[in-house]
Amino acid sequence: MTSGDLAARRARHLAPSLGLSYADPLEIVRGEGAWLYDAKGDAYLDCVNNVCHVGHCHPTVVAAAAEQMAVLNTNTRYLHENAVRLAERLCGLLPDPLSVCFFVCSGSEANELALRLARTATGRHDVAVVDGAYHGNTSSLIELSPYKFNGRGGRGRADHVHVVPTPDPFRSRVHPLGAAFACDPQRVTDAAREAEPNGGLAALFCESLLGCAGQVVLPPAYLAAAFEHARAAGALCVADEVQVGFGRVGSHFWGFETQRAVPDIVTLGKPMGNGHPLAAVVTTPAVAAAFANGMEYFNTFGGNPVSCAVGSAVLDVIESEGLQRRASEVGALLLERLGGLEATAPLIGDVRGLGLFIGVELVLDRTTLEPAAAEATRVVEAMKDRGVLLSTDGPGHNVIKIKPPLAFGPAEAERVAAELATVLAGL
Ligand SMILES: Cc1ncc(COP(=O)(O)O)c(C=O)c1O
Question: What's the whole-model pTM score?
Fold first, then answer.
């Protein structure tokens, strides 16, 4: 198919709600490390795919999948070493008392199960979430995702959902209405009070670093304090690590560890299978026991021997290639270079991030912080034309997000910063 033919046929038979990136969409046919290649053979530096965590098509992961696929793929109703090994390794990487695993196939499935666990364990229904959050694509999770229910096509907040303001250090520090962007974890108690007439909160869901809310790094120890408030109200605490887990933040393996918080339930996804649909929920023995109420939890594909071979291979590569340390070092370099652009590029309001989870917030005015959404889109398009793939996020669609595969190195960091300097100068 030619690219034009492909686009027309896609439009005819794939749902129109499935978006495409860029005004002139790319036909990507191959990936390697942090690079993607289009049908013409042009190379693009992938700065947004945190799913292919250890690098596109990493040979160790590909081999593990192919070898196990050639031997056996079944469900978890048989004893199999692969699931047990992966569960042992994951639990070994998590703090006590997180020691019981459920394997699922997507971040949405993981959060959906976390919701069921919390509701069954507490006997309550309501949930608190952070403004701007996205937790998944199911009906229940759209209800828990202000990014969606308050966004285009959304139908607003459901009665059982209670929204805590985005703890946004940049806006609360700089914006004239700073209080509206309060970083006060006490807001979790306010949400719990709001839930009291309905029987109280079952859970607080919070990403360990906020993705769709605009690549926000939470204020120091915010999550620890928010969890204290939630627990005081009888709720369970769910850390959504679907975006940021597995060493991306550099200093720690999990994002919540940077916040001195220990969740009751943690949800894992995207990077866990390096592109293979593998995700997990890890919880405490107490929560898992409450959920074992007679109703079996069955998941046809979750935890199958192929997926678990892939999950173990991903952990092997993170360890053997020192990718967590690389995220820390390369992330620090990139943050420094991007921070250096602030002096000459008045559009940059804030540069923030941890490891290789970085946001560059563009504003029209550094006092009013009016989001520079159209400019952010122009930057993303111009960077694509220069061979660097980025995208935007945040409620104002003005935050350029950077979360590349961890195969991304110092040379790639220098390239991104240099291209961005040129593009910003030309706006
Ligand atoms: C924080 C967060 N949680 C959950 C999900 C849902 O994961 P999936 O798309 O694998 O269902 C996403 C997806 O973008 C996410 O960003």
Answer: 0.97
Higher pLDDT, 180 or 144: 144
SS3 352: strand
Atom of ligand 1 minimally distant from the CA of 270 = 10
State whether the beta carbon of 134 lies less than 6 angstroms from ligand 1: yes
C-alpha 284/C-alpha 406 separation (Å) is 30
**404 Cα: distance to centroid of ligand 1 (angstroms):** 16
Indicate whether residue 105 lines ligand 1 (CB < 6 A). Answer: no
Listed residue (411, 326, 314) closest to 89, CA to CA: 314
User: pLDDT tens-digit profile of 129-152?
Assistant: 999 999 999 999 999 999 999 999
**From the centroid of its chain, how far is CA 189?**
25
Name residues whose C-beta falls within 8 Å of residue 378's C-beta, 6 or more positions apart in sequence.
Answer: 427
112 in contact with ligand 1, CB cutoff 6 A: no
Q: Is the CB of 107 under 6 A from ligand 1?
A: yes
- What was the pLDDT predicted at 152? 94
What letters, b where the CB count within 10 A reaches 16 and e where it falls short, cover 22-39?
eeeebebeebebbbbbee
- Give the three-class secondary structure for 93: helix
**Beta carbons of 141 and 135 less than 8 angstroms apart:** yes
Q: Which helix or strand (DSSP H or E) is residue 43 part of?
A: strand 43-46
Q: At what angle do helices 186-195 and 222-232 cross, to 10 degrees?
A: 30
Helices (H), 257-409: 285-291, 305-320, 323-341, 373-385
Coil/strand/helix, residue 399? strand
Does residue 4 register a pLDDT over 90?
no
Domains detected in the chain: 3-54+322-426 (3.90.1150.10), 59-320 (3.40.640.10)
Q: Which residues contact 121 (CB under 8 A, 6 or more apart)?
A: 202, 236, 286, 287, 290, 291
CA distance 415 to 408: 11
d(CA 180, CA 420): 31
* Ligand 1 atom with the shortest distance to the CA of 269: 10
Alpha-carbon torsion (305, 307, 312, 317), positive or negative: positive
Atom of ligand 1 nearest to the CA of 106: 10
Three-class SS state of 233: coil
The 8-class DSSP code of residue 257 comes to G
- Please give the number of the atom of ligand 1 that sits closest to the Cα of 244: 1
